[in-house]
TrEMBL record:
Its EC number is 1.2.1.3. Residues 34-408 form the Aldehyde dehydrogenase domain. The keyword Oxidoreductase applies. It is an enzyme of class 1 (oxidoreductase). The keyword Cell wall biogenesis/degradation does not apply. This is aldehyde dehydrogenase (NAD(+)). Belongs to the aldehyde dehydrogenase family. Homotetramer. SUPFAM superfamilies: ALDH-like. GO terms for molecular function: aldehyde dehydrogenase (NAD+) activity. It comes from Meloidogyne incognita (Southern root-knot nematode worm).
Length: 416
């Protein structure tokens, strides 16, 4: 019995995006071909396989890099405004498929549909910005100490930009990097998280078509799906001029050391164990909706530091808010749903482990703390935990799950 969702009429949008049951995870600019292991891409809302992806081998990486470096010679010699026009067309291509791409992100990653479509809209927006930028960036005119001379400053393309993205933003992070890098005359090699390879394949196919329509080498934007072995090749390769990595702080520290060891350039976008401080005069009507959602992204609130005068009241109000959204946990493709599943079973185990550790260290689960085993997928309840010390290891550690730690504040010292 064939269980792949790609073969269900419910998910016809997958085929409209060029997804098939078996997909090559490498695009070197000339062809889609990979020689690594084959993995199933699972839907986190049901843990049913969506389709298969064949990952990259080391030979695939070397081939992709070769073609990418060849394309630099063409792309960097195109005037910046003309490069901006290509980026504009890429944005338009994504705009036409925004609905389908949003659905794919929801299906593959697990975020709700509005967030999936919003992620594609972010790429469209940055493409518009980069198009304008292509006619604006310029160098300085500097006086020279030599008679009848001036100094002109001109920005030149860097070369190859390797982009390593995380599962929680499977498209937008690449889009932010790609739009700006392309406008500045650079070529890209994209290594997405293996579990969101289908989104990367769909986006790359759209970019490929735009480049071909303009008689440009598609190797300007290459794709190489793989695991940490491929990421290691990318970070250690001196032929990759800049590495942009998005992921955990732990892995980012390793990536930073590897790139700097060869004096390469890098951008790191890492974890952000964010905190909100609520003073006694805060408007709780604004606080409650602002901190209700804590989930699988580095921009959500994980630590809530609350003044003792409003501590108990805020716990009660947040508990009520969390309980109100329990009925709206489910299939992220359903537009009435507010909370989708965690991305993988491993994420569920991390959620469970964090709660157990919190209780063992004196924490109290004010609400949530439960895995929704009656649902097929990786569903858990949003959780609020009190009673932990502000400097406990668990509070200081970022857990990619809907857990918020609430801490009692007795006084706050502000130093100017």
């Amino acid at each position: 019995m064939n269980t792949y969702l790609i073969n269900s009429d419910k998910y016809l949008f997958l085929k409209e995006l060029g997804i098939s049951e078996l997909n090559f995870g490498v695009f070197d600019g000339n062809k889609w071909k990979s020689n690594g292991k084959i993995i199933d891409i699972l839907c986190p809302s049901t843990n049913t396989p969506i389709a298969k992806v064949q990952l990259a081998s080391e030979d695939d990486y070397q081939r992709t890099l070769k073609y990418s470096r060849e394309s630099i010679k063409i792309w960097q010699n195109i005037p910046a405004p003309a490069r901006g026009e290509i980026v504009r067309q890429i944005g338009d291509s994504l705009r036409k498929q925004c609905e389908n791409l949003g659905k794919l992100i929801s299906l593959e990653m697990g975020k709700i549909l509005s967030e999936g479509k919003g992620e594609i809209q972010e790429i469209i927006d940055i493409a518009d910005f980069a198009t304008g930028l292509s006619r604006m960036f310029s160098g300085s005119i500097i006086p020279s100490e030599r008679k009848e001379h001036i100094l002109l400053e001109q920005w030149n393309p860097l070369g190859i930009v390797g982009v390593i993205t995380a599962f929680n933003f499977p498209a937008a992070v690449y889009g932010w990097n790609a739009a700006l890098a392309l406008t500045c005359g650079n070529c890209l090699i994209w290594k997405p998280a293996p579990t969101t390879s289908l989104t990367a394949i769909a986006v790359t196919r759209l970019i490929e078509n735009v480049l071909k329509d303009n008689n440009l080498p598609p190797s300007i934007c290459s794709l190489i799906c793989g695991g940490s072995d491929i990421g290691l090749l990318l970070t250690k390769d001196p032929k990759v001029d800049l590495v942009s990595f998005t992921g955990s702080t732990e892995v980012g520290r390793i990536v930073g050391q590897q790139v700097q060891a060869r004096f390469g350039k890098l951008l790191l976008e890492l974890g952000g164990n964010n905190a909100v401080i609520v003073m006694e005069d805060a408007n709780l009507d604004l606080v409650v909706p602002a901190v209700t959602f804590s989930c699988q992204r580095c921009t959500t609130t994980r630590r809530l530091i609350v003044h003792k005068q409003v501590y108990d009241v805020l716990i009660e109000r947040l508990t009520n808010a969390f309980k109100q959204i329990e009925s709206r946990i489910g299939d992220p493709l359903n537009e009435n749903i507010l909370v989708g599943p965690l991305h993988t079973k491993t994420s569920v185990l991390a959620y469970k482990s964090a709660i157990a550790e919190a209780i063992a260290n004196g924490g109290k689960v004010e609400c949530g703390g439960k895995i929704l085993e009656e649902l097929k997928g990786n569903y858990v309840l949003p959780t609020l935990i009190s009673g932990l010390k502000h400097n406990s290891d668990l509070v200081l550690k970022e857990t990619f799950a809907p857990i918020c730690y609430i801490l009692k504040l007795f006084f706050l010292l502000i130093f100017n």
